Description:
Elements: H1 2-19, E1 24-25, H2 27-36, E2 41-46, H3 51-59, H4 64-73, E3 75-80, E4 87-89, E5 92-94, E6 96-99, E7 102-105, H5 106-111, E8 120-124, E9 130-135, H6 140-151, H7 160-166
Parallel strand pairs: 1-3, 2-3
Antiparallel strand pairs: 2-8, 4-5, 6-7, 8-9
Helix pairs in contact: 4-6
Amino acid sequence: MKKYILLAFFISFNFLTTAQKVNWTSFEKAIELNKINPRPILIDIYTDWCGWCKKMDKETYSNKTIVDYINTYYYAVKLDGEGKDPIVYKNHTFKFKQQGRSKYHEFPATLMNGKLSYPTTVILNEKEELIDKIPGYLKPKMMEKLLIYFHTKKYETEKWTDFEKNFKSNL
């Protein structure tokens, strides 16, 4: 009997943990999907060695409210700032570069205007235009505000300070 209870616990635990994941996709796939069903694109630029990136994965990108909002209203891209695979976008091939001890991928570096800061959250609108790039770790409450601000297009009509003042969190 104990075996069955333990098995049921692990199955439900596994279900709960898998149910709360962001549907990450490649940048190329997000662009394809955006042509069929336009929506904003959220890009999480990270590196494998970045402690704040790992903290953001653990605390922000695993928060159920954040996960649900991203999966419903955005195409989510996890982009390695030091990734080795080329990315072709708008007839240009972006590649991995290494100059001495410095290494980076051209595409995330372009999105961040050469300011390599990890993590950085980049938001593109439905037309694939850069709306904003936010460097640094984002707590769930800040991420929630940003997601809603950009998805609802409040940035077009309302200053961030006014939006933030009137914002009611679901967290």
